[in-house]
Amino acid sequence: MKKYILYIIVMISGASVLALEILGTRILGPFYGVSLYLWSALITVTLAALSSGYFIGGNLADKNPSLSRLSLFCILAGIWITIIPLIKYPFLTIFEPLGLRVAVVLSAFILFFPPLTMLGMISPYAIKLRANDLNEVGRTAGNLYAISTIAGVCSALLTGFILIPNIGVNRLTMIVGICLILTATLSFIVQKKYYMQTGILLAFMIISHILLWNKYQQNPDIKNGLIAVEQSPYGELRVIDNENGRHLLIDGGIHSIVDETTKESLAHYVAVMDLPKYFFDKPGKMLLIGLGGGSLMKQYANAGWKVDAVEIDNIIIKLAYEFFDLQTSEGTVHEADGRQFLMSTKNSYDVILLDAFGSSSIPFHLVTKEAFDLINSRLTKNGILAVNIETIGWDDPFVSMLYKTLKQVFKHVLALPMEEPPNQFGNVVLLASHQPLN
Predict the structure, then answer these.
(1) CA quadruple 37, 336, 389, 316: dihedral positive or negative?
(2) Over the Cα atoms of the chain, what is R_g?
(3) What separation in angstroms does the CA of 361 have from each of 186, 195, 240, 315, 391?
(4) Comparing C-alpha atoms, which of 179, 30, 36, 27 is closest to residue 112?
(5) I need a labelling partner for 226 at 20 to 30 A (CA). Which of 9, 112, 186, 202 fits?
């Protein structure tokens, strides 16, 4: 029986590592954006913690190893994981003045290094407990690492595709911690050890988590302006009302701002993205890639244009209809990736608006030469592409890089910056066409 308990511990710990790494992007994403910096920080902390765990666990395994001590690693990791949603805000507040790069590394280190180190200690320790002689060390290590890795694969799929969208980030984090604690409890029961201590710990954890279950889940708070909170496969979505209007936030970044009463857009870039329609004598067909709150779709539809929109996140589509007054009569919304839609559609458009952001940045596969070639093939002869980007300053390298990429496909490209002073964070809209953009 102890052999199977060992396998269960290794399996649950392997699953927890992958779940925690994915959850890390959703725990820190609303504060820092799911950017290259966040992924780099989480991968760095994960590898550093696992390496430390392998080293410490391997050394402890050579000093009177026991299943009880291995179970203790699970308990300590589980307790730390369950309190991450409660302790994250103080640390995020402390590190905020240090800037994005430093803050995201320190936050990831404080929140995830301790439990991942504990989980890393389990595999080498389990190998020592399972191997009976030197002739079977290789097979034992291979079997245990295989179990751990397969559990991690299943955990990654379940966490990203099913659990986060349906359970929520904070509650799932709590569940991961509880699974580790329950696994250790089962181990103690099989060993017939520490009944009283285990019972007290388990009772405390169950009672505290029952009391904290609702606190672990962010719910709408209309009184304080939080109208809706949703978890999707692509980010944490919030609808917030304040004195500046109604906001759609994705992982903490503002993606739409409208007047709370009229639902008219208050974002400057929306007015600039409206310019392409004035190059045409009469309303035509427009394709919007990236729905947001639907402000651009509404503007073109109200001017008599036939509008298609493409949005990969069905939760954003739902929020646009529910909270931003988007109407089915204003156009057709397709739930799909923008590039895949362009490849499959046979329609031609007079205007294509690219306003897609994945958390804090444009999905890179939408701004390559190949993507612009595809867009060009879906434009009419004098069609216009408008691309909305966010930069720090007008002379940001990204503006020139995107300009040069567009120039490989289109004869005329025009950049329209709109923020003052010109060195602050803001929007730049690039227009591209084969007709002059005077």
Answers:
(1) negative
(2) 26
(3) 45, 52, 21, 19, 10
(4) 27
(5) 112
Please report the beta strands in 284-339, taking only residues with DSSP state E, as ranges in sequence order.
Answer: 285-289, 306-311, 332-335
Which pTM value belongs to this model?
0.79
Residues 424 and 433: their CA atoms lie apart, in Å, by 28
Distances in Å between the alpha carbon of 212 and those of 198, 205, 223, 394, 408?
21, 10, 21, 47, 56
Distance CA 322, CA 377 (A): 34
Give dist(CA 405, CA 307) in Å, integer.
27
CA distance 325 to 189: 57
Indicate the DSSP class of residue 221: B
Q: What residues does 265 pair with on adjacent strands?
A: 258
pLDDT band, residue 360 (cuts 50/70/90): low
How confident is the model at residue 196, as a pLDDT? 62
Query: pLDDT grade, residue 231 (50/70/90)?
Result: confident
Question: How high is the pLDDT of residue 255?
Answer: 87
Dihedral, CA of residue 154, residue 157, residue 158 and residue 159, to nearest 10: 120
Of 15, 26, 248, 34, the closest CA to residue 150 belongs to 15
Question: Going by C-beta distance under 8 Å and a sequence separation of 6 or more, which residues neighbour residue 87?
Answer: 111
Q: Is the pLDDT of residue 1 over 60?
A: no
pLDDT in tens, 70-118: 989 999 999 999 989 888 888 888 888 888 889 999 999 999 999 999 9
Q: Encoding tokens for residue 281?
A: 């004598």
